């Protein structure tokens, strides 16, 4: 399994992985699907974020989007009372999904750790994310990586979410 930076030509396949993942969930509130444009934006614009893909035998089995919210009003850094300068140092562990036949290989953890290692030498030192409280698999991966729950609230159209935070 190789972890590579996603390319524009990967956007539709990444969106397909999102759709497949969502369709298999009993509770659709666990995962929010992004648009192809959002995915492309994060592949092509280094000021918006970065997208990684896990590839085996030429096939994408999982992906991970990291989002840089900048000074946006909805920056999750407000949950930990970051000031304006530190808000620009926030990176979201934004969207990650693994195809069913690639599960059981620790790819979610591996991709999140890879993303954190990628961010460590950059100015992004406040890592944040959200996870549905009942999604124990994702929650446990955040916790294994040293994230803590800073608040439980409603996000994304009133869906319950833990707000996760880690400083690197």
From TrEMBL:
Instruction: Give a single Pfam family match.
Output: Acetyltransf_1
PROSITE patterns per record: GNAT
Q: Which residues form the N-acetyltransferase domain?
A: 1-168
Q: What's the protein name?
A: GNAT family N-acetyltransferase
- The species this protein belongs to is Enterocloster hominis
